[in-house]
Specification:
Strand content: 25-35%
Radius of gyration: 19 Å
CATH superfamily of the largest domain: Dihydrodipicolinate Reductase, domain 2
């Protein structure tokens, strides 16, 4: 049994870990710690977590804990991931994995030195919908890929005290929302792009609430990514892949368990497919367990996380904004 401790009573924890863990054999959520003990106890009671630790370090030091889940603000990811790894714990870390590439590389190196799993929590990558999309790109039915457009937006405005609008905590739409389109295009092309241009809308200064970027892959295709949390817009998570022979549209690759569609338009015909509603988070946890128990490879391992952060850093540079956590590098 892999016993998991949670660092922080984060809103995402029930959906991303606690609820799906109940359907994953060999995984148990055993402990939680939060900065506020009262909140931690209430969270543990609500979600039937057996133990409340006095602080984050107590979870890391607990010999009964095998792995740690880190849904803390991005600015804290590197510190607590490295401490957990050095204490012999596997880590499932929410995205973005780190504040910048340099931090991600340190995290990767420690995981390799310790021989432990460090997983970047891009849950979408393990769902059959995205696996099918990758197969279409590589199978050739669309012809040579020319262009990918990927966007993820939520209805704003995000409150001013939300960590996504606080630079010191790793805030910015690209770190929280726009990181998905970056990951989507990277994994569809199985390649690392160059950032050609980027532009951002900021509020407050240096914190992007909208980011768009043009990317170019070495083998020719271009990509446009958009992340936005501005006001007066509807939820949208969509990818459009254009090839010489046809087009593929992926509707809601983010959380396909809430509804999705894969549409292939080739030679004047359109075919639509849907896949299981089993949660992306359950697929992710199954992959995490397999990596720990059997050494199974991960699509979103620490090395992939460092490559992802390199693109994000380059987007900030191209948009004329400072890289997050640069003072910590």
């Amino acid at each position: 049994m892999i016993r998991v401790g949670i660092l922080g009573a984060a809103k995402i924890a029930p959906m991303a870990l606690i609820d799906p863990a109940r359907s994953v054999p060999g995984l148990e959520v055993s402990s939680i710690a939060a900065r506020d003990q009262t909140r931690a106890r209430a969270f543990a009671f609500a979600h039937k977590i057996p133990k409340v630790a006095k602080d984050y370090q107590a979870i890391i030091d607990d010999p009964m804990i095998d792995a740690v889940y880190i849904p803390l603000p991005i600015s804290a990811h590197a510190t607590w991931t490295i401490q957990a790894l050095k204490a012999g714990k596997h880590v499932l870390c929410e995205k973005s994995l780190a504040a910048n590439r340099a931090q991600a590389l340190r995290m990767r190196d420690v995981s390799l030195d310790q021989g432990l799993v460090l997983m970047d929590a891009f849950h979408y990558r393990y769902h059959p919908l995205f696996e099918a999309a990758v197969a279409e790109v590589r199978g050739g039915r669309l012809g040579a890929i020319q262009r990918i457009d990927a966007s993820f937006q939520i209805q704003g405005p995000v409150p001013v005290d939300d960590i996504r609008r606080i630079y010191a905590q790793g805030g910015g739409v690209l770190m929280d929302i726009g990181c998905y389109p970056v990951s989507w295009v990277r994994h569809l092309m199985a390649s690392e792009p160059d950032v050609v241009t980027a532009s951002a809308v900021t509020d407050p200064a240096n914190v992007d609430v909208e980011m768009t970027a043009e990317l170019c892959f070495k083998n020719g295709p271009t990509a446009g990514i958009t992340g936005s949390m501005q006001a007066d817009q509807k939820f949208k998570a969509e990818i459009v892949v254009t090839g010489l022979a046809g087009r593929m549209t992926i509707k809601n690759p983010l959380v396909p368990q809430l509804g999705h569609e894969l549409i292939i338009d080739v030679e004047g015909t359109s075919k639509s497919r849907t896949f299981t509603r089993k949660p992306t988070y359950q697929f992710q946890l199954e992959a995490f367990v397999a990596a720990i128990q059997d050494g199974a490879p991960l699509w979103t391992d620490a090395d992939d996380g460092a490559k992802q952060m390199a693109v994000i850093d380059d987007c900030y540079r191209a948009a004329g904004l400072p890289i997050r956590g640069l003072d910590d590098v």
